[in-house]
Amino acid sequence: MNSTFNLLYYLKKAKINTRGEAPIYMRITIDGKISEISTKRVIIPSKWNSKAQNVKGISEECRSINFYLKTFEQKVYDTYHLLIRENEKISCELLKNRLLGKDQNRRVIFPKNWNI
Q1: In a domain, 112, yes or no
Q2: Residue 74: in which H helix or E strand, if any?
Q3: Cα torsion angle, 11, 45, 77, 74, sign
Q4: Over the stretch 14-30, which tens digit does the pLDDT of each residue have?
Q5: Element at 42 (helix H, strand E)
Q6: pLDDT of 96-114, one tens digit each?
Q7: Best CA proximity match to 29, nearest among 104, 97, 96
Q8: 101 in Cβ contact with 79 (< 8 Å)
């Protein structure tokens, strides 16, 4: 069983785009190891509430982003609990890969004349 598990949303201000928007990232920490995932959402830094880890305001855009962040957070918790039920040794990378669908074995069919 893991001793620590934490999620944190933050802005990656080093990647501000030409419109002045910064991407929102999620940091997953498990037993002191860190992994980052882009939420694929951007916001003007002045609208970000770092203490509450959400977007300030009541506009449709703010509500939409906040709803997406809550939904994404719930997906992370659901995936974490699924890994626990599967008795997996949970790590940041395993959780991230499961979230992104990268842990599934993929089969590739090559034509008969394909030289490997």
Answers
A1: no
A2: helix 60-85
A3: negative
A4: 999 999 999 999 999 99
A5: strand 33-43
A6: 999 888 865 555 555 666 5
A7: 96
A8: no
